[in-house]
Design the sequence.
């Protein structure tokens, strides 16, 4: 006898309200076991793999790849079969019949790594690999029963699209040509996109599950409207009109891009930024990098100029602790860290992320090289976890890899400084009164002027530059 269990999207991190389905690892008919990885989801911070809470057979995938699901929404159905319930483990829920309401989103200003001190949270209880359950009361909303559909006459051409909203199972009202009212299946985010683009869902044919209208359907209708000059009703182009492609493309803001945008706005308009620049002769550091690559203890890891830049900044943070601090607005305190979680800004296919090396000050040069190598590989593979991306104390952005000399980097929220490392290039330089060709680069240090005064910022930048000009200083000052 079939025993169908629906697995609802869990909160895999504090404040998560929604996630995108990136890739399913199973399909209908596949057997699954408890804690088997079944799906990859993308949150605002990272791609996370979710394990199955049930053992049984997959009957259906309720949310297709590329779609966004709210926390608490069923995403997969599994037939646990006779005895399957005993082999299953699932996140605790107070009432399966009730529709879960996601917890309110955590304000960007109080997330881990964000300026401000978060309120104490209830202790989390792990009940399944990859999940946690929040203790305390959960706000819920009652299920809405779809209203009876009444016959209605067709509105005049050009009527504004309906702004009705509701649960995921409720659809937007649509009027068809025979004068009766039907309901076009579409999720609330899709309906909002249609309203923003001026697309009438009544004229669209859905390509999603059970004929639901998807984001792609709306975007295709918008492209036809733009290219073919069709009124914004989402209708097919008139006979003889051949769309040649949209002049504008709309990309939904979600995942890493959404989080990055919110963090950068919060940082730029909260912390008063000051940026100082220093051009240095880095020839000796480049020579040292070449020699380090031949050291046996550093075989198998990437040795680059960034390694010595990272070491120099860590040493400078030890000499000037305020550069490694944060501003706690709620407590009206400056929090000085006695450790360095060194963030390295990384450009990935999913957008800009800043994973960090925990307790970098405690690592040897070989250990730091290994940690930076692992960090780069994890970021490129898209496997950085929320833990990897939170808790940073100071950041380096290597803009030189893009062929750029310098820039004015924006602080990672919750940090007092960020160092931009520009490209290394040959340039004329005066050495002992003589003009010579040397390897030169530009450093740019942005800092929070509430914490770091100009004198302190200048001292940090000067010392980092001095250590890269003469790497022996790293030994003397470490």
Sequence:
């Amino acid at each position: 006898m079939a025993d169908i269990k629906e697995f609802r999207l869990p909160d895999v991190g504090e404040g998560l309200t929604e996630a995108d389905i990136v890739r399913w690892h199973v399909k209908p008919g596949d057997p699954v076991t408890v804690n088997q990885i079944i799906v990859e989801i993308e949150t605002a911070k990272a791609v996370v793999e979710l394990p199955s809470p049930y053992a049984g057979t997959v009957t259906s995938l309720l949310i297709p790849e590329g779609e966004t699901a709210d926390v608490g929404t069923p995403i997969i159905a599994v037939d646990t079969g006779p005895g399957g319930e005993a082999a299953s483990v699932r996140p605790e829920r107070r009432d399966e019949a009730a529709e879960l309401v996601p917890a309110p989103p955590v304000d960007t200003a109080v997330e881990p790594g964000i300026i401000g001190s978060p309120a104490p949270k209830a202790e989390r209880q792990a009940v399944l690999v990859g999940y946690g359950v929040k203790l305390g009361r959960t706000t819920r909303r009652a299920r809405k029963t779809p209203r009876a559909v009444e016959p209605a006459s067709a509105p005049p051409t050009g009527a504004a699209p309906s702004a009705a909203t509701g649960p995921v199972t409720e659809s937007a009202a649509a009027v068809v040509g025979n004068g009766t009212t039907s309901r076009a299946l579409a999720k609330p985010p899709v309906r909002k996109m249609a309203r923003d683009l001026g697309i009438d869902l009544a004229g669209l044919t859905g390509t999603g599950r059970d004929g639901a209208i998807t984001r792609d359907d709306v975007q295709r209708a918008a492209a036809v409207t733009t290219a073919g000059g069709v009124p914004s009703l989402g209708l097919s182009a008139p006979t003889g009109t051949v769309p040649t492609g949209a002049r504008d493309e709309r990309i939904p803001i979600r995942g890493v891009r959404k989080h990055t945008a919110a963090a950068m706005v919060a940082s730029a308009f909260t912390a008063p930024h000051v940026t100082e620049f220093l051009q240095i002769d880095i020839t000796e550091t480049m020579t040292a990098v070449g020699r380090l690559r031949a050291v046996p203890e550093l075989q198998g890891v990437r040795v680059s100029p960034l390694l010595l830049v990272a070491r120099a900044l860590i040493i400078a943070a030890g000499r000037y602790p305020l550069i490694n601090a944060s501003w706690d607005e709620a407590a009206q305190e400056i929090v000085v860290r006695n450790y360095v979680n060194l963030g390295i800004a990384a450009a990935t296919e999913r957008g800009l992320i800043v994973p960090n090396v925990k307790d970098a000050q405690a690592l040897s040069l070989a250990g730091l090289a290994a940690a930076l190598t692992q960090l780069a590989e994890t970021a490129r593979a898209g496997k950085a976890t929320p833990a990897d991306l939170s808790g940073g104390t100071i950041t380096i952005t290597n803009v030189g890899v893009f062929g750029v000399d310098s820039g004015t980097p924006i602080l990672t929220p919750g940090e007092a400084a960020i160092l931009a490392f520009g490209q290394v290039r040959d340039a004329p330089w005066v050495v002992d009164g003589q003009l010579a060709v040397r390897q030169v680069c530009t450093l740019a240090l942005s800092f929070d002027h509430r914490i770091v005064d100009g004198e302190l910022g200048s001292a940090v930048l000067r010392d980092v530059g001095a250590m890269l000009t003469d790497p022996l200083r790293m030994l003397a000052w470490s």
In short: The two ends are 69 Å apart (CA to CA). The chain has three domains: 4-141, 144-253, 271-477.
